[in-house]
Every structure is written in structure tokens, then in C-alpha cells.
Amino acid sequence: MNPAPTLASQPSPEAATARTLRHVVADDAHAAAVELDGWQQRYQQLTPGAFRAEMSQVTYGDVHVFREQTSQSLLEEGEAARGYVALALPDMQCQGGWFSGYGMDGQTLLFGRSMAMRTPRQLDLAGLTVPLPALERAVALAGGEPARLERLPPVRPITKSAGREFRGVLLSVLATASLDAEVFSNRFIESAMRDALLLAAATALVGEGNAGNEPLPTVPARRRLVADAYQMIRSAPDQPWSILSLCERLGVSRRTLQYSFNEVTGLSPLDFVRAVRMNGVRQALRAGAADSVGAAAANFGFQHLPRFAAQYRAFFGELPSATLARR
């Protein structure tokens, strides 16, 4: 296997803690402009009428995801923080706006460090801001060409299915943050959220057909890759494994990883990781290697005990306490 591109420089200790969800409602364009974290922005209202803006945003490590909904046409100008770039996609109802001199609608992916945007009267925009080096490495792991990022135009077409997938990930992350406070204290969930956002960005930029030039691995290579992954997961079951971290450690693209796992195990990589962890907990409970269900679960990366118990029961047909009682 080729050496793996490094996924991303790990967030500094100061940045490593997820910031709780912020939801802001504003009735003034200037007030709305200052609410988006990590940006220097200026908004001017262009059409007459009462204005309303809603912004939801959350940060995981060095990745920031946001949703902006506005009710009047605006001129928005701004710059992301140094070393960061942004990707954003309007909803399918967006018509009649422009971004950096290009027309935009629900099938145009917006990209860059700076922006000059005239919005339509109704805008629902989902996006994220990421460090450029992290995005470049994620693009490489997704099978794309990182060097092309510097040459990308500020607006590029995206298919309906790819757009739905990209917006779906962003909105799902925001929805999870609004419903479950655990995402702000659990390093597994934070890592998964961060990597899911990076992967969504990389996939949207690489495009549906551009990663297909990579040759698929041979049967022996697929088996070897899965065996290596299995040993890696077993040796560190408490680590927050994600698609991107597996790709990085194994030195393969996301496409190769998913294809190999589907062919060899019949499972997705993350379903396989979960199965290995579940079986590890069960073996520990049956062998008396842990004094409690909580201790056994924590040793294999399950931090939320009620959720783990429900997953364990769905997986094995009994609660972990029942397994422990039979040791």
C-alpha cells in the first residue's frame, strides 16, 4: 500500500472542544452579518420590506458548519479566517442570485475564501468552513486531486443527488447538535462529526464521476486491506475510528476502503468497526474481564451507556446486563 496522506493536522487543544450549537434570529441585516463565526462580513439589504434572518451554527474542532436563512435580497461581502475556505449550497428553490459574478441556484456549489454574493429574496444556504490543508487531504483520500482546489472557480455545478447528499450531511449534523448535548462532550462523536463534514466537502468537490479512474483492488489486496483494518481496530478499539481515519492509516482512498469492506465482509467500514467493538464488549462481559457493563463498554469506545445498551440488545438479542449475569 502507498503511504497514506495525512488526514489533517489535529486541532489544537483550544480548538479541539466542540462549541455548542448557536441559533440566532435577527431583524437587521447588519446585525445578522456579525453573527457568523469565523467570518468578517458586511450585509446590505437591497429589497424593501421587513427583514428576518435565522442562523444555526456549530463547530467541531477546526470545522464550522452553518445554515443561513434570510427573507430579503442582500448584498453579502466577506472573508473567511486566514487559511480557511468555505463551501456552501443553496436549497433547490434558490433562483436569481449571483456569487462572485456567477449565477447561482440550487445546483451550484459555492467555494472560496472570500465572497461577494447577491442573494434572492428568499435564501436557505447550508455551508461549512474548513482549513484548506485539511480539505486538501480529505480530497486526496476521496480520490481527487488536491492541487486543483486552488484553481477551482467560485461556482461549480453539482448534480441534484450530490447536492442532496451534501446538504443532507450538513443539516443532519446541525439537527443532531440541536437534539443531543452529548455531541459536545464525547470525543468519538466530535471526531465522527468533523470527519463526516470533511468527507462531505471532499465528495462534493471531487464529483460523482471523477473518482472512478482509480483501479479497484484485486481480491488478494481487498482481503489484505480488511485484515489490516481488523488488526488495527482490535489493537485500539477505544479509538474514534472514522472513514477518513481508516483511509489515512491504511493509505487508501475512500472508494477502495468501501469497496473492499463491502466485498469481503458485506458490511460498510463503520458497521464493521461497530461489530468488532460489540463483540469485544460481549467477550469481556462473558469472560468476567470487566466489573460492570459501563466499564466494559467504555473500554471499547461506547461512552453513552443507555444508547449502548439499546444497540447491544438490537445486536445480540439481550441486554448487556444479562450477558454479565451469566458469566
What's the arrangement of secondary structure elements?
Blueprint: E1 19-26, H1 29-33, E2 39-45, E3 53-60, E4 63-70, E5 74-80, E6 84-90, E7 97-99, E8 102-104, E9 108-112, E10 114-118, E11 123-131, H2 132-141, E12 155-157, H3 160-179, H4 187-206, H5 219-235, H6 243-250, H7 254-264, H8 269-287, H9 293-299, H10 305-316, H11 320-325
Antiparallel strand pairs: 1-3, 2-5, 3-4, 4-11, 5-10, 6-9, 6-11, 7-8, 7-10, 9-12
Helix pairs in contact: 2-4, 3-4, 5-7, 8-9
Structure described in brief:
The protein is an alpha+beta fold and 327 residues long.
Can you describe what's shown?
The longest helix has 20 residues, at 160-179. The protein has helices at 29-33, 132-141, 160-179, 187-206, 219-235, 243-250, 254-264, 269-287, 293-299, 305-316, 320-325; strands at 19-26, 39-45, 53-60, 63-70, 74-80, 84-90, 97-99, 102-104, 108-112, 114-118, 123-131, 155-157. It is globular, with a radius of gyration of 22 Å. The model is unreliable at 1-18 (pLDDT under 50). The chain has a domain at 20-187. The chain has a seven-stranded antiparallel β-sheet. Strands 2-5-10-7-8 form a five-stranded antiparallel β-sheet. It has eleven helices and twelve strands. It is 41% helix and 22% strand. 39% of the residues are buried. It is α+β, with helices and mostly antiparallel strands. The two termini are 42 Å apart.
